[in-house]
Write a structure and sequence with these properties.
Elements: E1 16-20, H1 26-33, E2 37-42, H2 48-60, E3 70-74, E4 87-93, H3 102-112, E5 113-124, H4 126-135, H5 152-160, E6 165-172, H6 176-186, H7 193-208, H8 211-224, E7 227-233, H9 262-265
Parallel strand pairs: 1-2, 1-4, 2-3, 4-5
Antiparallel strand pairs: 5-7, 6-7
Helix pairs in contact: 1-2, 4-6, 6-7
Length: 271
């Protein structure tokens, strides 16, 4: 289930992509499938081996171009283990709402994006999230849970404060909002029949993508889309250089205190 629209956020062969807060790797997999050099970074270590395994399998099964590289890393969004301007694209999907020092994380996102590079940030949209908080404290009041609800203008201003320029906005996953409202109403941790039934509907929709549900969600997204997406560009300080210097082709830098995986300390693994 992709939140970032890759038609509005183009990646391809040669693109250096950081998936910050990669989680289970959904955006990393799509960027890798399109031929990008991908780093999937997350603070939560247990999911990283599965993400690495899937990227390896995609390479082995020919689902990604042979020239595309990948790596996974455990790291902190407040102190990214990469040099300034290391990435052409940075994705931060559904992570800022978890971070108390979100402005520090946004500063790091801008720092590691090269001039002219693109950034995609997604967070829970205000209205669907506000309903969830009203229905259940347990929804967000857990370790690592959501610490704030963003209004669109508030998030845009925080992003602009780093020098990033907003190029577009969007909403996604309207059909998921009622699912989360139902979960919150009946108990976020309760495995009850109505929640299971709605979940089966969402999985069916994800796999089949029938026109009726696609059109319905597109019509509802501007009103109750669960996620808000903001697309940005990092401007050039002056004029763009004719070509990057050779050592800029490397993703990241060795940083033994950051918990980077071995494959990243000398660049990205090729499989």
């Amino acid at each position: 289930m992709l939140t970032v629209d890759f038609n509005r956020f183009p990646v391809g062969p040669g693109s250096r992509v950081l998936d910050l807060g990669a989680g289970a790797g959904r955006h990393s997999f799509e960027a890798f499938r399109r031929g990008a050099d991908v780093v999937a970074l997350d603070r939560y270590a247990p999911e990283l081996p599965d993400v690495r395994g899937m990227l390896y399998a995609m390479r082995a099964e020919g689902q990604a171009p042979a020239a595309a590289r990948y790596g996974v890393a455990r790291g902190d969004a407040l102190d990214l283990p990469f040099a300034d301007g290391s990435f052409d694209r940075v994705i931060a999907a559904e992570i800022l709402e978890h971070i108390p020092s979100d402005e520090a994380a946004i500063t790091e996102i801008a720092r590691v994006t090269r001039p002219g590079g693109l950034v995609a940030v997604t967070v829970p949209a205000w209205l669907p999230e506000r309903v969830c908080w009203a229905l259940s404290d347990a929804y967000h009041n857990v370790e690592g849970g959501h610490v704030r609800i963003y209004r669109a203008g508030q998030l845009r201003e925080k992003l602009r404060a780093t020098g990033l320029v907003v190029t577009g906005c969007g909403r996604a996953h309207a059909l998921h909002s009622p699912y989360w409202w139902l979960k919150c109403l009946l108990g976020p941790d309760r495995d009850v029949a109505p929640v299971r039934a709605y979940h089966r509907l969402l999985v069916w929709d994800l796999m089949r993508r029938p026109p009726l549900t696609r059109l319905t969600e597109a019509a509802l997204d501007p009103f109750i889309g669960k996620s808000r997406i903001i697309y940005l560009r990092k401007p050039y300080a002056t004029q763009p250089a004719a070509a990057p210097v050779a050592d800029r082709a490397r993703l990241g830098r060795p940083a033994p205190t950051t918990g980077l995986t071995t494959g990243l300390t000398t660049g990205l693994t090729t499989g």
